[in-house]
Amino acid sequence: MSEGSRGGGTVARAPGVLRRRVRHADLRAVGEVRRELRQLLSHWAKLRNGEAAEVAEVATLLTSELVTNALVHAEGGAVVTAIAGDRLRIEVRDFVSGLPEPKAPTADGTSGRGLMLVRSLADRWGIRSHGVGKCVWFELGGGPA
């Protein structure tokens, strides 16, 4: 297990699994998570056929949206978990209670698109409450369950 400095960084590495902590308001971490996710997905893609490239692009986009939301709207940072098995499952957990509400974006607004994208592009998705905080998750690769 490796730890990043000051609460950020990869916290566990197992075949097919990415688990990374990101600090509150550390928006540089979004790019780092994307890079680590792409690395995980390059190995996963070798086990899959033609759909892997499309799944990887969608997964990267949706993960970026969820991590950004967590870092902007939730104190205490977040934990990102990606599990690449038969399907790809991404979870972004934060430590603030209250569930996000999907909103229709405005033409000139800078928010409101993240959950709409997840709802539109993921095969499955949801929000799970925890004792402290919540987990927004989605699945891709394998069609609707």
Automatic annotation (TrEMBL):
Keywords: Kinase, Serine/threonine-protein kinase, Transferase. It comes from the Bacteria. GO terms for molecular function: protein serine/threonine kinase activity. The keyword Transferase applies. InterPro entries: Anti-sigma-factor_SerPK, HATPase_C_sf, HATPase_dom. Residues 25-138 form the Histidine kinase/HSP90-like ATPase domain. PANTHER family: ANTI-SIGMA-F FACTOR RSBW, ANTI-SIGMA-F FACTOR RSBW-RELATED. This is Histidine kinase/HSP90-like ATPase domain-containing protein.
